[in-house]
Specification:
Length: 110
């Protein structure tokens, strides 16, 4: 009746915190393999998101991978990106540190 084809990858990502000679470690691990996070902050690539094409995302994210980045922090003052952004990051081995939207905004206190 219906058919869905998806590409998936099963893995775990967690923060390892262990006592060390400075206090406590803080490192990321994928499938229990630690890695050093190298990356940048991602702000919206265009003020008007509908202007962006998949090839625009591919070029920018590929440039990040080519610069040996393995993590991008999605800035909380922006917006949630289209699925193509997350799919390309997954494809190119780039982890996402996703801020909550409006994380940088001044919100009223109740």
């Amino acid at each position: 009746m219906d058919n869905v084809t998806k590409r998936i990858g099963l893995r775990t990502l967690h923060i390892q915190r262990k006592p060390d000679k400075w206090g406590e470690s803080f490192q990321f691990a994928v499938n229990d393999v630690p890695f050093f996070a190298k990356g940048a902050c991602w702000i919206p690539a265009d003020t008007f998101a509908p202007h962006l094409k998949p090839e625009d995302y591919r070029d920018l994210i590929q440039s990040s991978a080519d610069a040996n980045m393995n993590m991008l922090r999605v800035w909380g003052g922006g917006f949630y990106e289209d699925d193509i952004f997350y799919d390309l990051c997954d494809e190119l081995g780039i982890c996402i540190w996703q801020d909550f939207m409006f994380a940088c905004a001044h919100l009223p206190r109740f």
